[in-house]
Amino acid sequence: MSSASEQSRRFQAARKLAGVIGVPAVAIAAAFAAGAVFILAIGESPVSVYGRLFSGTFGNFYGLGQVLFKATPLIFTGLSVALAFKAGLFNIGAEGQLYIGTFAVAWVGFTLSGLPGVLLVPLCVLAGAAGGALWGAVPGYLKSRFGAHEVINTIMLNFVAIALTGYFVTHVYFVPETVHTQRIAAQAQIPRLEQFWPVFKGSPVNVSLFLALGIAVAVYFFLWRTRFGFELRALGLNPAAAEYGGISVGAGTVLAMTLSGALAGLVGVDFVMGYKYYYEGGFSSGLGFMGIAVALLGRNHPLGVVLAAFLFGALSYGGLVINAVVPKELVEILQGIVILVVIAGTNVFGQLAASFKRGRPG
Amino acid sequence: MSPPPKSGTDSPSIPFLKMEGISKQFALVKANDCANLDVNRGEIHALVGENGAGKSTLMRILYGLYRADSGRMYLDGDPVELRSPADAISLGIGMVHQHFMLVPPLSVTENVVLGSEPLRAGVVLDLKGAAERVKELSETFALAVDPDARVEELSVGAQQRVEIVKILFRGARLLILDEPTAVLTPQETESLFVILRRLKEQGKTIIFITHKLSEVMEISDSVTVMRHGKVVGDLKTAETNTEELATLMVGRKVLLEVEKGAPARGETVLELKDVHALGASKVPTLRGISLRVCSGEILGVAGVQGNGQTELVEVITGLRKPSSGSLRLLERDITGLSPREMLKLGVAHIPEDRLKRGLVPAFTVSENLILGSHFRPPFAGRLWLRREDIFENARSVLRRFDVRPQAPALPARSLSGGNQQKLIVGRELSRDPKLLVASQPTRGVDIGAIEFIHRNLIAQRDRGCAVLLVSADLSEILSLSDRIAVIYEGRIVGTVDSTQADEKKLGMMMMTGVLAKEDGNGAGES
Ligand SMILES: Nc1ncnc2c1ncn2[C@@H]1O[C@H](COP(=O)(O)OP(=O)(O)OP(=O)(O)O)[C@@H](O)[C@H]1O
Ligand SMILES: [Mg+2]
Q: Is the CB of B52 under 6 A from ligand 1?
């Protein structure tokens, strides 16, 4: 009896796992299959192009470093979107939030340059989180106070954020003849991985990767082990029941959007403190929007987000690797297909999986 | 099981529907265990059994939603295999689910044609023709649905009739109704029965699931009783009675009457003075409610649905802000406090709609069991949830309230309807509340569980808790309450001692809002 139920529980867990991994796996496979058709159409061999893609990204440490470098900001934005999703909110504003956060990192880094590193580094990190948090809290507040939809407001605030930071970097804090600010203080700069592991030489991947991974673990613990995470998940799944259970819908909405914004703002730690050492106008070009795809592919789970960020990181660097043989747009096509299949898949394959379940003894 | 003799040759009256040896295993439970069901053409066939007995599962198999692990089905003597609801529909089988599946913003006709859109000349959606047909069906079967009404504006009873039109529109000959009366008022139930009789006269066959044995006796021709996934009885309604059915279902004698001693009424716990509040559509719904509940008593609120019961409960639990008037809980002004503050003050609430308010269906059972106490010890510290305590709590509540299966990690949505209700009742009662607001506490639970919940409500009372009971079921109000307040158009029109009340007297007050003179101890305030 107990062993039978133990067995069926294990079976159930295995099936759940298959369900979680199934859709993304199918999406990735479908994307590569469709990509193969394109490659054939332009008269190249899919095997050799994909081979090059793989060996260029995961086949050597430099490539791996580049992949990790591309993945780092996507982990932040993916977690940002996923956390809001968990609370039932669609944060399209990670892009704006990361602009504000990144600018804040740089501003603190070059303004408070007299501080020692032990103070300045954490202050810069906090500034990034705070800038993003502020930009997330506003639409959260507007929603809870006036019922204004967060999708509209976050989109609007993206424009404002980009224009505002653009103004600062062209009119107030700029180095003449450039579109970037002055450099942050040397003691605010964080080490690159090549400083510890020379095999990564030449790749700007830096220790903010570990911050990203640590934050992913923290988000997991926050969502599933704390009372506030419990409240946000309840809100996302059934707001009426959450309200019944003494959870304030308004406060939860503001909290979720604030945290979501803070996560997006941390992109600045990677870009400013670990890569360029200054703020540069228009640096993101869609990292926040990619975060939506990363969150979707990662099923809004921190571990899934990390894996999805690595995949998109690999695709985006891989595009440069195979550029010599095929247009790098091919990789953009692959990315697009992955996203499309995942979006369709969460419904279509979800339904398929459900009918499969129905047809089988559980 | 040996294969069946190919029917049709030996028996002159083959059943319209024959389900034979149906089994279905879910992860933790065998929901159907070699179940047999025979239904004759043109009859109303009741299907009864405890919560989790497997009734809904058997019907979902018949409707093609689940595939059985083993077993056979015959329609008119012909073997059938159902892979999907579409197969079932094409064979003339239709189902109204325990929880409706309508699209609220769409019109009745649009909902009816959804999924089977009629086309004119092969391309144009023929809504006009469909509306005609809806009207025709509505008239033939006394369904009284307006084809152009928006579903979101309809009462629960009317939405249910839309579901019935929907399946008739697709040519159903066999109608499956899963607990249709659980959400209906007694009046709506009566009109549903009129419709069912009309359907039967027109040659339709009906399978009807209910937990109310009086309904079985009233409407059905035959009854099948299920227990633990098996069929344990197959009877003609005329040849049985409620006691026998109850015993078959539960496996023991059930007390259909509750025993309770005299109340030991104590201090005033809850007091409402002239409370006004707006309803969902911003119209004044509570229009000067005054009432008082004391510790150690059960105050029943009786009334025709829609007279402000929902809003009354929401105002007391903090879910709706009163527009004027005052509320006091144990000498403290609680007017306008939030739901969380009410929870902290010891107010427990069994909500009327379990899936909408009472549960987060995707959460596990143990997570659902801390909803409302998730922010304080023993389940949480300042930040962290305490997983051991949460798990232990789940184990103990599941055991004490006999929720099946006893699996804390299962998502609440995979419990049967009645077990979900027991989960909520268990959670709220184990808070040891000072005030318990119970709205339709036994909706959808089996008679064994009704008895159990009733005994527990009385135990809460005897412990000194003040209980406010709101129920559409007059006999429940009468058998549990110490005093009964009648609500009419947003006011309490009279409060009677339950020893001096009966169904007729209350019914009069509920319908007319007038207190029968000789019995009241004061209208409004009491
Ligand atoms: N999708 C599912 N996954 C796992 N278990 C399930 C699922 N659906 C039903 N069950 C289990 O199967 C058993 C039978 O459930 P079913 O819904 O058929 O009961 P029921 O007789 O309709 O009960 P009720 O009167 O409470 O509605 C229950 O123990 C339930 O927990
Ligand atoms: Mg059921």
A: yes
Interface of A with B in 138-177 (CB under 8 A): none
> Which tops the pLDDT comparison, B258 or B482?
B482
Nearest CA in chain B to A241: B357
pLDDT score, position B152: 80
* Cis ω for the linkage preceding B378 (within 30 of 0): yes
Burial (CB count <10 Å: 0-12, 13-18, 19+), residue B518: exposed
Q: Enter the pTM of the model.
A: 0.86
**Tokens (6 digits) for B471:** 């129920």
Q: Which of B25, B339, B363 sits opposite A234 (nearest CB)?
A: B363
How much distance in Å is there from the Cα of B96 to the middle of ligand 2?
A: 12
Alpha carbon of B37 to ligand 1 centroid (Å): 18
What digits encode the pLDDT tens for the residues B187-217?
Answer: 888 989 999 999 999 999 999 999 999 999 9
Ligand 1 atom closest to Cα of residue B226: 21
Is beta strand B44-49 parallel, antiparallel or unpaired with respect to B222-227? parallel
Residues of A in Cβ contact (< 8 Å) with B439: none
Residue nearest to atom 28 of ligand 1 (CA): B52
Give the start-to-end residue ranges of the domains of chain B. 1-92+174-180+209-254, 264-346+434-526, 360-432
Q: Which residues of B touch A245 (CB under 8 A)?
A: 339, 343, 371-372, 374
Where does residue B30 rank: exposed (0-12), middle (13-18), buried (19+ CB within 10 A)?
middle
Q: Is the pLDDT of residue B150 over 90?
A: no
The pLDDT tens digits for B358-408 are 999 999 999 999 999 999 999 999 999 999 999 999 999 999 999 989 999
- Asked whether B406 lines ligand 1 (CB < 6 A), one says no
DSSP secondary structure letter of residue B32? E
Q: What CA–CA distance (Å, rounded) separates A90 from A151? A: 6
Q: How many CB pairs under 8 A join A and B?
A: 90
Of all residues in chain B, the percent with pLDDT exceeding 90 is 63
| CATH classification code of A65-355 | 1.10.3470
| Contacting residues for A264 by C-beta, under 8 A, at least 6 apart | A76, A77, A80, A91, A93, A94, A95, A97, A98, A101, A132, A135, A136, A288, A291
Give distance in angstroms: CA of B140 to centre of ligand 1.
Answer: 35
Which ligand minimizes its atom distance to the CA of B421?
1
Better pLDDT: A256 or B83: A256
Render pLDDT for B103-134 as a digit per residue (tens, 0 to 9). 888 889 988 888 776 666 666 677 888 888 89
Q: Name the residue among A226, A358, A359 with its Cβ closest to that of B384.
A: A226
Q: Is B414 in the pocket of ligand 1 (CB under 6 A)?
A: yes
Regarding the beta carbon of B32 and ligand 1, being less than 6 Å apart is answered no
Determine the residue among A244, A259, A301 to mutate to test chain B binding: the one whose Cβ has the most chain B Cβ atoms within 10 Å. Answer: A244
Evaluated on CA atoms A82, A88, A93, A98, the torsion sign reads negative
CATH H-level, domain B1-92+174-180+209-254: superfamily = P-loop containing nucleotide triphosphate hydrolases (3.40.50.300)
Question: What residues contact residue B325 under an 8 Å CB cut-off, 6+ apart?
Answer: B272, B273, B274, B275, B276, B288, B289, B335
Strand, coil or helix: B381: coil
B314 token code pair: 């929401």
Q: At residue B256, does pLDDT exceed 70?
A: no
| Residue from A32, A66, A79 nearest A192 by CA | A66
User: So what's the pLDDT on residue A362?
Assistant: 26
Domain regions of chain A by residue span: 65-355
pLDDT digits (tens, 9 = 90+) for A318-358: 888 888 778 877 778 877 877 777 667 665 444 445 444 44
Which of B416, B425, B446 for a ligand 1 pocket mutation test, highest count of atoms within 8 Å of Cβ? B416
Structure tokens at A114: 């007299």
Which ipTM score applies to this complex? 0.86
Topology of B264-346+434-526 in CATH? Rossmann fold (3.40.50)
